[in-house]
TrEMBL record:
Keyword Secreted recorded: no
InterPro entries: Ig-like_dom (IPR007110), Ig-like_dom_sf (IPR036179), Ig-like_fold (IPR013783), Ig_sub (IPR003599), Ig_V-set (IPR013106), Nectin/Nectin-like (IPR051427)
Any one biological process term the GO annotation gives: heterophilic cell-cell adhesion via plasma membrane cell adhesion molecules
Stretches assigned to the Ig-like domain: 16-109, 312-397
Biological source species: Myiagra hebetior
Transmembrane regions listed in the UniProt entry: none
Upper taxonomic lineage: Eukaryota, Metazoa, Chordata, Craniata, Vertebrata
GO CC, one annotated term: adherens junction
Function according to Swiss-Prot or TrEMBL: Involved in synaptic inhibition in the brain. Selectively regulates inhibitory presynaptic differentiation through interacting with presynaptic NRXN2.
Record's keyword terms, sorted: Cell membrane, Disulfide bond, Glycoprotein, GPI-anchor, Immunoglobulin domain, Lipoprotein, Membrane, Postsynaptic cell membrane, Repeat, Signal, Synapse
Protein name according to UniProt: Immunoglobulin superfamily member 21
Subunit record text: Interacts (Ig-like 1 domain) with NRXN2 (via Laminin G-like 1 domain) in a trans-interaction manner.
Compartments in which it is found: Postsynaptic cell membrane
Length: 436
């Protein structure tokens, strides 16, 4: 007797699809059994998912008589109604027949197929690295957007756009194994006015040579060392809204793409885009992260608009503060949508805060048991992100607390010892009258 087994190959399938595994075999012997296995752990474990035992089967009418000499073609199918990521992997079909010469001998053959299950990404988000971060009007600083894509299998293709146009970025090498997280701020080496390098010099510099970045030293194409003369500008002349430095109109973008496997079989992809931030042209710029994946009919995307904070809205509770109350001053929002997350710094104009510190970080400033001395004090909240900075002031008015007496008065409203004082005064007057 002879036996040949083959399984029809399968294209990649998407999670949730129905899949049919088909095992074709040809033989001139009598059927003994058909067993389907799911193979795991690199082939060390085989899990039965379907068994057909002809010896105990009553529904055997489709099988031809084993005494016939012509070839018989059979097909065994296993249907998976809704595939999951855990169904990904190899499958085997094992077929056994009785030998024509002797019924005691069983001939075995098998075939295998790999089921490739794809999963579209389930979430995509764009965030800013190193937030909250301050605004610098003296020194150029780089800025990094991070796009996180989760739930996909295989790893998706991630790319950035600015104002709807694809960004041509210089790829950065993968970080070495065992190294810490990549710090994008190492890309820049600037002093106060190093950013006035002509574009032609940058094009002919290290970046223009096409050499890969050395692993030990960070790239220096964004800010080459050069001599510069910096004039002294009084603080009252420097604007808070616009930095004093100038650099190339067209920024150079750097791109890095990494992915890490997740326990559920999916991949988390992270893409970073780094460039030298220019608040004049980057404020209100729209950046989008887009994802292409074979399980998606159209790209996924998430977008953010870089915006500096403007017009913080501050509330104070209670609205009518009394001596001894706990006052909370909170930033509830802005007149615009702000990205990335601002950094909030509280100061007291002309003095230190109630706890003796010079400043306090956070959206809320808490003043415990305010004394009367704080009446009329002015508080400044500075909200800033890498695109700009803004200040808002609020004045604290402290009223007298009716629940706290001004002095140690008795229940009749008179000070203790008044009766004794009146007795001494009357006695003194009597003595004076008698003497006169």
């Amino acid at each position: 007797a002879y036996l040949t087994v083959s399984i029809e190959p399968l294209p990649p399938v998407v999670v949730g699809d129905a899949v049919t595994l088909k095992c074709n075999f040809k033989t001139d012997g009598k059927m003994r059994e058909i067993v389907w296995y799911r193979v795991t752990d690199g082939g060390t474990i085989k899990q039965k998912i379907f068994t057909f035992d002809a010896m105990f089967s009553t529904n055997f009418s489709q099988m031809e008589n084993y005494r016939k000499r012509e070839d018989l073609v059979y097909q065994s199918t296993v249907r998976l109604p809704e595939v999951r990521i855990s169904d990904n992997g190899p499958y085997e079909c094992h077929v056994g027949i009785y030998d024509r010469a002797t019924r005691e001998k069983v001939v075995l053959a098998s075939g295998n197929v790999f089921l490739n299950v794809m999963a579209p990404p389930t979430s995509i988000s764009v965030l800013a690295a190193d937030t909250p971060a301050p605004f610098s009007r003296y020194q150029a600083q780089n800025f990094t957007l991070v796009c996180v894509v989760s739930g996909g299998k295989p790893a998706p293709l991630v790319y950035f756009k600015r104002d709807g146009e694809p960004i041509e970025a210089t790829p950065l090498p993968e970080p070495p194994v065992g190294a810490g997280s990549w710090a994008p701020r190492n890309l820049l080496h600037r002093d106060l006015d190093d950013t006035k390098m002509p574009k032609s010099l940058a094009a002919d510099g290290e970046l223009g040579m096409g050499n890969p970045f050395p692993t030990a030293d960070p790239p220096r194409g964004l800010a080459a060392e050069r001599e510069s003369v910096t004039e002294s500008i009084p603080e009252t002349v420097v604007s808070r809204e616009f930095p004093r430095w100038v650099h190339m109109a067209e920024p150079i973008y750097y791109f890095r793409h990494t992915h890490a496997p997740v326990s559920d079989g999916t991949v988390e992809a992270r893409a970073t885009l780094t460039w030298t931030l220019n608040p004049q042209i980057d404020n209100e710029a729209l950046f989008s992260c887009e994802v292409k994946h074979p399980a998606l009919s159209m790209p996924m995307q998430s977008e953010v608009t870089l915006v500096a904070p403007k017009g913080p809205k501050i509330t104070m509770t209670p609205t009518r503060a009394h001596v001894g109350d706990t006052v909370r001053i909170l930033v509830q929002g802005f007149q615009n949508e702000v990205f990335p997350e601002p950094l909030f710094t509280w100061t007291r104009v002309g003095s230190r805060l109630l706890d003796g510190s010079a400043e306090h970080d956070g959206k809320e400033l808490v003043l415990e048991r305010v004394p009367a001395e704080l009446n009329g004090s002015m508080y400044r909240c500075t909200a800033q992100n890498p695109l700009g900075s803004t200040d808002t002031h609020t004045r604290l008015i402290v009223f007298e607390n009716p629940n706290i007496p001004r002095g140690p008065e008795d229940s009749n409203g008179s000070l203790p010892g008044h009766c004794g004082f009146r007795f001494v005064l009357a006695l003194t007057l009597t003595v004076i009258l008698e003497l006169t």
